[in-house]
């Protein structure tokens, strides 16, 4: 039996005058959370626009919820109903009131769930009479998320959805997303600069840089298995001659050298006197973008 994929791309490319995305080959199984990291301009938004049918790819193939999407016309109304989207800015008309947003939901989605929307608005402490233009960035993101969840999508695409939220509010949103993922038919793509959110929620993380995939790793391989070791020059020389040198990346600083090791447990057995700690997504990202091979 073939595993269903919520998103699948093969050699996907999109070209602009000064930027090229891809080729990108990506498989996102249904029931998983994919985190996407990368600097501004790395290609995250272009990839999301391709997935949503907002722009047509120039090459390769793309399927969303097992429907091929090669042009905007392929993103049919029935397919759109199965996708929830929260972009990095609140997309509603500025003069609309929070309570009015439900009218859009009822008109756009056959599966619109008004009680669900009302419950989310209340949980997010959104004042129904407040206008969209008067909402803070964080409140605008909460309103967008309430709207996206209230039509019960199968695929949720979030672009900086937790940006502008204080830590308590971010945890509240992440708990809501975990509840969403209790249904094995659901999938999330989460693009974010807040890597701690990705650590808490993602099953896998990909990094884009200059339109290319720099790494595509299971989250646990990053935060549970990989490690950062603090090396002296003598340690660097010993590590270079050991079997643990494979896949190691170095970042040299003024008074010492840090090393990203793929397996911190194996490293600790070989070098018991060298401090090694679990890698964070931020550290892993820095090593993969700036580190040098041993």
- Number of strand elements: 15
Our estimate of the beta-strand percent is 25-35%
Main sheet: which strands, in order across?
6-7-8-3-9-10
Classify the secondary structure makeup into a structural class. alpha/beta
- Give average pLDDT, whole number: 91
- Estimated radius of gyration: 21 Å
Main sheet attributes: strand count, strand direction, barrel closure: 6 strands, mixed
The helix content is 25-40%
Global morphology? globular
Number of alpha- plus pi-helical segments: 11
Summarize the helix and strand pattern as letters.
EEEHEEHEHHHEHEHEEHEHEEHEHE
The first-to-last residue Cα distance is: 42 Å
- Poorly predicted ranges: none
Features:
five-stranded antiparallel sheet, globular, 11 helices, alpha/beta, 33% helix, six-stranded mixed sheet, 294 residues
Structure described in brief:
The chain is α/β, with parallel strands linked by helices.
General description of the model:
By secondary structure, the protein is an alpha/beta fold. It contains eleven helices and 15 strands. The strands form three sheets. The chain has a six-stranded mixed β-sheet with strand order 6-7-8-3-9-10, with helices on both faces. A five-stranded antiparallel β-sheet has the order 14-11-13-12-15, sandwiched between helices. A four-stranded antiparallel β-sheet has the order 2-1-4-5, with helices on one face. A hairpin with a 2-residue loop joins β9 and β10. The radius of gyration is 21 Å and the shape is globular. The two termini are 42 Å apart. The mean pLDDT is 91.
């Amino acid at each position: 039996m073939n595993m269903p994929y919520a998103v699948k791309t093969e050699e996907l490319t999109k070209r602009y005058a000064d930027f090229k995305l891809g080729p990108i080959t990506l498989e996102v199984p249904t029931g998983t959370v994919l985190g996407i990291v990368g600097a501004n301009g790395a290609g995250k938004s272009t990839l999301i626009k391709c997935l949503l049918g907002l722009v047509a790819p120039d090459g390769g193939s793309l399927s969303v919820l097992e429907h091929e999407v090669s042009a905007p016309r392929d993103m049919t109304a029935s397919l759109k109903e199965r996708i929830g989207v929260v972009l990095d800015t609140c997309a509603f008309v500025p003069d609309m009131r929070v309570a009015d947003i439900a009218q859009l939901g009822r008109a756009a989605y056959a599966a619109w769930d008004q009680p669900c929307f009302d419950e989310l608005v209340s949980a997010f402490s959104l004042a129904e009479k407040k206008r969209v233009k008067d909402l803070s960035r964080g409140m605008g993101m909460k309103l967008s998320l309430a709207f996206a969840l209230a039509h019960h999508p199968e695929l949720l695409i979030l672009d900086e959805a937790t940006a502008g939220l204080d830590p308590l509010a971010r945890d509240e949103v992440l708990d809501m997303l975990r509840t969403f993922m209790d249904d094995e038919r659901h999938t999330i793509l989460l693009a974010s600069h807040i890597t701690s959110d990705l650590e808490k929620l993602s099953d896998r993380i990909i990094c884009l840089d200059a339109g290319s995939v720099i790494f595509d790793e299971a989250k646990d391989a990053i935060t549970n298995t990989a490690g950062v070791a603090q090396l002296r020059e003598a340690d660097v020389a010993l590590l270079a001659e050991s079997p643990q040198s494979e896949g190691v990346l170095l970042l040299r600083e003024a008074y010492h050298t840090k090393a990203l090791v793929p397996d911190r447990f194996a490293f600790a057995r070989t070098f018991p006197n060298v401090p090694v700690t679990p890698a964070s997504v931020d550290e892993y990202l820095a090593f993969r973008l700036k580190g040098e091979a041993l």
